[in-house]
Specification:
Bound molecules: zinc ion
Helix content: 40-55%
Largest sheet: 6 strands, mixed
Structural class: alpha+beta
Number of helices: 6
Number of strands: 6
Order of helices and strands: EEHEHEEEHHHH
Strand content: 5-15%
Oligomer: single chain
Shape: globular
């Protein structure tokens, strides 16, 4: 369960994750459906850079215990020397880390330059999962409409505030989306 895995690494100030398939088919299908709607809302296919953009691809991630991640990382030192999200997400890497301050947890991430690859942690409550997806898709929108460097060069708070504003604006829609599908809470 989320929160039980100790994946914060004081040494590098990072949290460790790996790609995983989501064991809950309901949220997978809800997320796929939501993907279509949010991509449409943000007009992602009509943004600048669409020649390099083939739609958003959602990847589920799970936290990995720091000690286990460190072991995997050092056993595969030549392979796993760098995180796979600078230019692309490479699913060959069995685990990876994301930089964050200790007091923050990471529920989702859209690597800069990932061209539509979005990472979302599974086992979050359903409404929360969809909110995270909305926030992350907004980062895809930022990348496509302003260029990949924009997020890198901009103040983190501004980047996040925009995405949060968009995600918050969908709160009623998300509630209704779940309601009409008979999903009230996980
Ligand atoms: Zn965000």
């Amino acid at each position: 369960m989320v929160g039980e895995v100790q994946n914060y690494d004081e040494q590098g100030s990072v949290r460790w994750f790996r790609f995983a398939s989501n064991p809950d088919p309901l949220i997978v299908s809800l997320a796929n459906e939501f993907n279509v709607g949010v991509s449409y809302l943000l007009q992602l296919r009509h943004s600048v850079g669409e020649d390099e953009f083939d739609g958003v691809e959602l990847h589920w991630i799970e936290p990995v215990e720091t000690s286990e991640a460190r072991r995997i990382w050092s056993d595969n030192a030549e392979l796993e020397t760098q995180p796979p999200w600078t230019d692309q997400i490479d699913a060959r890497f069995s685990c990876f880390n994301l930089q964050c301050p200790k007091e923050e947890s990471i529920e989702g991430c859209t690597p800069i330059y990932s061209k539509g690859h979005v990472l979302v942690q599974f086992e979050l409550p359903y409404a929360r999962t969809l909110r995270v997806i909305a926030d992350e898709y907004y980062h895809v929108f930022q990348d496509l409409s302003r260029g990949g460097d924009w997020r890198k060069d901009s103040d983190d708070q501004l980047v996040e505030a925009e995405a949060a504003e968009f995600a918050d604006s969908l709160a009623i829609l998300i509630r209704r989306f779940l309601e009409v599908r008979g999903v009230f809470q996980k």
